[in-house]
């Protein structure tokens, strides 16, 4: 069966817009100086969807340069959860099928993972940028023997301009991931809030370094 990559990407983006407008039911689970992390049960799989929200000290364009899902992008340099990122197939200017690998984590309890997603990039009239993704299969990407295949359910990042504050950006992120394999639920439940806090912290450091 041929997958409708563009359709799946558009559906993931629509879901992100829904999450963004839906304030109900989120429970706080972690707060740092950079991010407030909350969660609620996922409607997509038997896990949780996590929301991260923070204000970063750089322009939306600058944040976008650091997080945008492109080959040779900056993400692998600063994001400790992204070891490698490759574009498997460009579907259009804004949609591509990508493979991401992650290093072992959580004191090696979580072994290296690979994810295959269709990713969409979208810019809104108010300057907001969205990157949204969801898991797909691709003929050029059979499961690799030394990785556990994980699955991202609709997830994404919004870079939101703050009116009158050109050098600050609200970053709103949604993560819902089935790590696959046989991990104790307690490991999964403590991994994500820590991982999202790390994402914001490392990104904050990256925008300061990459400002020059």
3D structure, described in words:
Pfam families: START. GO terms for molecular function: cholesterol binding; cholesterol transfer activity. This is STAR5 protein. InterPro entries: StARD5/6, START-like_dom_sf, START_lipid-bd_dom. With 212 residues, the chain is an alpha+beta fold. It has a single domain (5-20, 32-173, 187-211), classed as 2-Layer Sandwich (Alpha-D-Glucose-1,6-Bisphosphate, Chain A, domain 4), CATH 3.30.530.20. It contains 4 helices and 12 strands, in the order αβββααβββββββββα. Strands 1, 2, 3, 4, 5, 6, 7, 8, 10 and 11 form a 10-stranded mixed beta sheet that branches. Strands 9-12 form a two-stranded antiparallel ribbon. It is globular, with a radius of gyration of 16 Å. The model has no long low-confidence stretch (mean pLDDT 94).
What keyword list fits this structure?
212 residues; alpha+beta; Alpha-D-Glucose-1,6-Bisphosphate, Chain A, domain 4; 10-stranded mixed beta sheet; two-stranded antiparallel sheet; 4 helices; cholesterol binding; cholesterol transfer activity; transport; STAR5 protein; START-like_dom_sf
């Amino acid at each position: 069966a041929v997958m409708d990559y563009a359709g799946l990407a558009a559906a993931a983006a629509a879901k992100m817009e829904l999450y963004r407008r839906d304030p109900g039911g989120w429970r706080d689970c972690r707060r740092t100086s950079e991010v407030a992390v909350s969660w609620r049960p996922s409607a997509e799989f038997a896990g949780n969807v996590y929301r991260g929200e923070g204000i970063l000290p750089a322009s939306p364009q600058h944040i976008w340069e650091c997080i945008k899902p492109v080959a040779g992008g900056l993400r692998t340099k600063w994001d400790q959860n992204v070891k490698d990122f490759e574009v498997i197939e460009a579907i259009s200017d804004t949609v591509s099928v990508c493979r991401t690998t992650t290093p072992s984590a959580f004191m090696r309890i979580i072994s290296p993972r690979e994810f295959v997603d269709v990713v969409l990039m979208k810019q809104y009239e108010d300057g907001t940028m969205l990157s949204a993704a969801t898991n797909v299969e691709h003929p050029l990407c059979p499961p690799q023997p030394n990785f556990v295949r994980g699955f991202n359910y609709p997830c994404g990042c919004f870079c939101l301009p703050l009116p009158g504050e050109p050098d600050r950006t609200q970053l709103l992120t949604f993560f819902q991931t089935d790590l696959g394999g046989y991990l104790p639920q307690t490991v999964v439940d403590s991994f994500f809030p820590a991982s999202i806090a790390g994402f914001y912290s490392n990104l904050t450091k990256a925008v300061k370094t990459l400002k020059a």
